[in-house]
Amino acid sequence: MLDIAEELHRWCLRAEPFAVATVSQVGGSTPRGPGAALAVDGAGTAVGSVSGGCVEAAVYDLCADVLADGRPLVRSFGFSTDDLFDIGLTCGGTVEVLIERIVPADRPEIVAFLAAAARRERVALVRPVADPAAGPGRALVVRPDHPDRGSLGAAELDRIAGDRARELLAAGTTGPLVPWPGHATRLLVESSVPAPRLLLFGAVDVAAALARLGSVLGYRVTVCDARPVFATPARFPAGVEVVVDWPHRYLATADVDARTVICVLTHDPKFDVPLLERALGLPVAYVGAMGSRRTHDDRLARLRAVGLDETRLARLRSPLGLDLGARSPEETALSIAAEIVSDRHGRSGLPLTGTSGTIHPPDRVRPSARPAPTRP
C-alpha cells in the first residue's frame, strides 16, 4: 500500500470504508512487485495499480465484492494459453493479491501505518496471507526501537514476526515472510522508509536536469556547491534542497545510508578530490563523477596520491552515465539516471533486444544478518 499511502491516509480521515488489494507474492516476470496496491472506495473511485493494467478490471470487481460483504480474499492471476480473452498476465508471470475491506474505526493498526507511511517514516506493517486459522483484520505495526502495535494472534508469532520484520525494515524491503520453516502462516511485510537521498555536488546545468529526474524517481535531492552565485534555489526545481558549502565539508555531516547516491559534477580537482576521498569510504549505493576520460585519469592519479587504494577506486563510476550519446544537459542527466537505476537493480543497462531472461526481475534483497529462526 506504500505507493498510495497518502491517498489512503486521506480516505482514513474520512472515516469511510474502502477495499484494498495488495500484491502479496509474485512469480516470474511481473510489472509490479509485492506491496503494489489498488484501492476502491464506496463511490467506486480507484487509486493505484497491481499489475500495470493486465488484471486491473478483475481486481477492481473483486475489491467491490469485498467492500460489499467484508470477507477478505486471496486471488492468484497467471498467464493463460487456453483463452486469449481470459483474465491473466500477458507477461507470463504470476501475481497473488490479498484483498481486504478496511473500516478505519476498526483497523487502528492500518490507520497508524498509513499515517506514518504518508509521512515517509520508518515503519512496517505485517499481515497474514492465506491462513485459514487467522481471523480477518489481524495486523502488526513494527517500528525501530518502539514496542510493536497490534497482534497476529499469538504472542510467539508476534515476537518472531516482529524481529524478522525489523530486519526487512532495516533493508527497506517489502515482500512475503514465513516466520519459521514449516509454519502455516505466510505473512506480508510492507516496509516504509524515508526516501533515499540523491546528493548532487556542483550547481551546474546537468545538476538541475538530474534533480528533476531524481525527484521523479523518488529520491530526496540535495544540491551542494561552495559558490553562492550558482547555488541558488531559483536555479533548481521546487522541493530540491540547495546548500552553500564546501562539498567535502557538507558530506562529512550528511545523513547517508546504503541507498544514498552521490554524483560529483564539479569538474574541479579542489572540490572533487577531497569530496571523493570521503565519499568512496562511505557505505553508500553509488558514487559517480562526471568528466572526460582524460579528466577521469587525472582524477584517479590525484586520488591515489592522497592514499586511496584500488579497492576504493574501483567503486567510482567515472565517467558516469550510460553510453547514450548524450549532448544536452537533459540527455546527460537521463544517461546518469539510467545508470543509477540499472545499478540499483543489478542490471546490465544493455538494450532489451540484445538480452534474454526475465525483464522484470525480483528486487535484490539484502541478506539477513541472522539465520531464520527454528520453530519454537
C-alpha geometry:
elongated
Give the helix/strand class: alpha/beta
**Judging by the overall fold, what is the CATH architecture of the largest domain?**
3-Layer(aba) Sandwich
Helix content: 25-40%
Rg, nearest Å: 23 Å
> Helices and strands, in N-to-C order?
HEEEHEEHEEEHEEEHEEHEHEHHEH
Major beta-sheet overview: 6 strands, parallel
Terminal residue distance:
31 Å
What is the name of the CATH class of the largest domain?
Alpha Beta
Number of helices: 10
**Strand-residue fraction?**
15-25%
Task: Please characterize this protein's 3D structure.
The protein has 376 residues and is of the alpha/beta class. It has 3 domains: 12-103, no CATH class; 107-194, no CATH class; 197-348, NAD(P)-binding Rossmann-like Domain (Rossmann fold). Helix content is 30%, strand content 22%. The protein has 10 helices and 16 strands. A 6-stranded parallel β-sheet has the order 13-12-11-14-15-16, sandwiched between helices. α1 (5-13) crosses α3, α5 crosses α10 (329-344) and α6 runs parallel beside α7. The two termini are 31 Å apart. This is Xanthine dehydrogenase accessory factor. Residues 198-340 form the XdhC Rossmann domain. Residues 346-376 are annotated as: Disordered.
